[in-house]
UniProtKB/TrEMBL annotation:
Keywords: Membrane, Transmembrane, Transmembrane helix
UniProt entry tagged with the keyword Membrane: yes
Name of the protein in its database record: AzlD domain-containing protein
A Pfam family reported for this protein in Swiss-Prot or TrEMBL: AzlD
The species this protein was found in: Actinokineospora guangxiensis
Amino acid sequence: MTLLPILALAVGTFAFRYGGVVLRDRITFSEQTKRLLSTAAVVLLFALVATAALAKGQSFAGWALPAGVLVAGLLAWRKAPFVVVVVAAALTTALLRLAGLP
């Protein structure tokens, strides 16, 4: 029963990726469209981060998790190594939860 949806997703993913390679030289975008697609990617990524940082299931995740994400964002913006970003975010969240902040 679950094999059919998995196969459908696999075929769709392959077709989507293969289509990009085949159509790369046949389709051209204007500069305005390129800027719009770039902005759309940033907005989509921000929405994903905001949803993951602020919600846990159907409710608010508490203040410790968004604080950890904020620390990670600041360190990434300052070009800290990835391991430092992840460890600092985890430590921030853990210490705030240990202090009693939900």
